Amino acid sequence: MTHRTPPSRPDRRRRGGRRSRASAHRGPTRRGMLMAGSFAVIVLATVGYVAMAHGERSEASAGAGRESGGGGRPSASATGRVEADGAPSRRPAGRSSASPSASPTGSASSGTGSRAKDIPAGPGTFTVAAGGGGRIGKGAKVLRYAVSVEDGLELSAAETAEEVDRILADPRGWTADGVSSFQRVSSGATDFEVKVATPGTVDRICGEYGLDTGGEVNCSVGSQVMVNLKRWLLATPFYVQDIPQYRALIVNHEVGHFLGHGHQTCPGPGRPAPAMMQQIKGLHGCVINAWPYDADGKAITGPAVP
Hints:
The chain is an alpha/beta fold. The protein has a domain at 76-281: Collagenase (Catalytic Domain), CATH 3.40.390. It is 33% helix and 13% strand. The chain has helices spanning 8-26, 30-67, 157-169, 199-207, 229-234, 243-258, and strands spanning 76-77, 97-99, 126-128, 141-150, 180-184, 192-197, 211-212, 218-221, 224-228. The strands form two sheets. Strands 2, 3, 4, 5, 6, 8 and 9 form a seven-stranded mixed sheet that branches. The termini are far apart.
């Protein structure tokens, strides 16, 4: 028996089809409007969450940058210590130390300002500043030092030596301890040598003592006080308006390690930061200071830290 569709059903489908087309012309249904509104709310909520999450990440990054002194990658050493002006610290044996200036110090970016990209590579050879000077300080033992600059730099060895001389001769410097005295020489035996070098050369020399200066910071290893050219020229964010004072901090901090002084931290809000403080990691309420003693000959110190 053949199944036959009642004649009325096709008619109903045709009439329904006409109603559907008519409804489409009249506009969206109430259900469609509700679904569109819900979709818009979901989209807005998602955008808001993404923006909020991005803001939180940006703020966290900015906070990390401020804590490290501007920029920079954190400095670490084989011993896990980091210095105030920019690099890792001394090894257990000997007087070798390293200081981050950025960093991490920075850090602290690592470099301060757009000139960071202009720091060149160097050949690893040095020119010692000619001449010398008289004895500085009243200490019984005179420490003989030389100043040298890596070859190929637009930096005068003679002018650099004069600046180092002024720092070590300043009455607020290490000679105020009544024990230390210095004399610059250009030949013969020396107790230590201040060497201004490109980041790569500093990394290589400091790395021979197990220190990672990361292309950013200074170190004191053996009888060599290694000054990173980047820090010498650009300082760190805390000192960007007073680069000569930051140079004094580099010399005083690293020579301080050579003399056997360890790290210190801020003694209290508003007080001068000790020269042996890792200032590149933050001032922690202190104000900038590059000198181990004040104008009255009083030591500027703080609690000892590892």
